[in-house]
Amino acid sequence: MQPLDVKQFIRGLGALPMARLRAARAGRLLRSVIQSSSPLSANARSAMVFAPHQDDETFGCGGMIALKRSLNVPVEVVFLTDGCQSHGTRPAGEARKLVLARKREALQAVSMLGITPPAVHFLDQPDGGLETLSCEEHRRLIQQLVHLLQSFQPEEVYVPHRKDRHVDHEATYRLVKAALVESELRAELLQYPVWLLWQAPMLCNAGAPEFRGAYQLAIGPARDAKDRAIEAYHSQHQSTAAGAGVLPDGFLKQFLAPYELFFKEEGSPL
Q1: Phi then psi for 53, rounded to 5 degrees?
Q2: pLDDT tens series, the chain, 270 aa
C-alpha cells in the first residue's frame, strides 16, 4: 500500500467545494453583468464567428448563430487552431485522432445550429500556439483571415473577449482585429466571453473595465439547439484515464443560461 500523502488528501477534499464555490461566484457575476447590460435583438446581418478552438463558437455564440440561421441569415464559422491540446500533451498519433474527433464534433455541433460544412473553415494552427507564431507564420495567418473576411463580407464579426483569460482566445481577438483593419471591411466587431467569467469571478465585478459595453441577447427560441450543440462535443465532456481535458460542470452550466453576452468597444456603433 502506498503511504498516505496528507497534502494531496487535503487538496482532494477541498477540490469539490472549491469548484462549487467558483461556479457560484461565476454565476453571481454572470447575473450581475446581465442586469447591468443593454438588451440586444436578433437581427438579419450576416455574421462570421472566429473561434480559437472547436466548442468556443457554441459556448459563446451558439444561441446567436441559431437565431440568425432560423431567419436564413448567412453565418460562417472559422476555427483557428486544431484543438489538439485539450487533453494535454499526447503522442503524435493520439493527438491526430483528437484533432479529427474535434473536427467531426464541430461539424455536428454547428449543423445543429443551422450551419452546413461549406460555411465552416478549419485553419489548423497549433493549439496553444497563436501567441508564439513566427513573424512569417503570423503574416500568413493574417492573410488567411483577410481573405476569408473579404470573400464573405460579413456585416458582423464575432471574436473571443479581448481579456478572456486564455492565450489563444486573446490572440484570436488581436489577429482578427488586425485582419479587419487590413481588409478595410466595415463590420461590427462583437466580443464573446468564454473563460472570463469562470477564471476571474473573484477579481472582477460588473463594474470592472472588462465588462464595459455589455449587451445581452435573449436566446430563448434557440436554447434547445445550443444545448444539443454543446452535447455534441463528447471529447470535451468525457473523462479520460488521466482525468485531463474535462470541462468543469460549473463551467458548462454558465452557457445554459437564456442569454448570451456580447461586448463592444467604446466608439463602435451597434
Answers
A1: -135, 160
A2: 444 443 443 344 445 566 676 677 777 777 778 778 899 999 999 999 999 999 999 999 999 999 999 999 999 999 999 988 765 555 556 778 889 999 999 999 999 999 999 999 999 999 999 999 999 999 999 999 999 999 999 999 999 999 998 999 999 999 999 999 999 999 999 999 999 888 765 556 667 777 788 999 999 999 999 999 999 998 887 655 444 446 776 788 889 999 999 999 764 544
Return the exposure string of 148-167: e unless at least 16 CB atoms fall within 10 Å of the residue's CB, then b.
bbeebebbbbbbbbbbbbbe
Tell me the whole-structure pTM to 2 decimals.
Answer: 0.86
- Return the number of other C-beta atoms located less than 10 Å from residue 21's C-beta: 14
CATH classification (class only), 41-263: alpha beta
DSSP string spanning 23-42? Answer: HHHHHHHHHHHHHHSEEE--
Note the residue count of the chain.
270
* 3-state SS, residue 88: coil
Residue among 166, 265, 160 at smallest CA distance from 212: 265
d(Cα 22, Cα 199) in Å, to the nearest integer?
A: 8
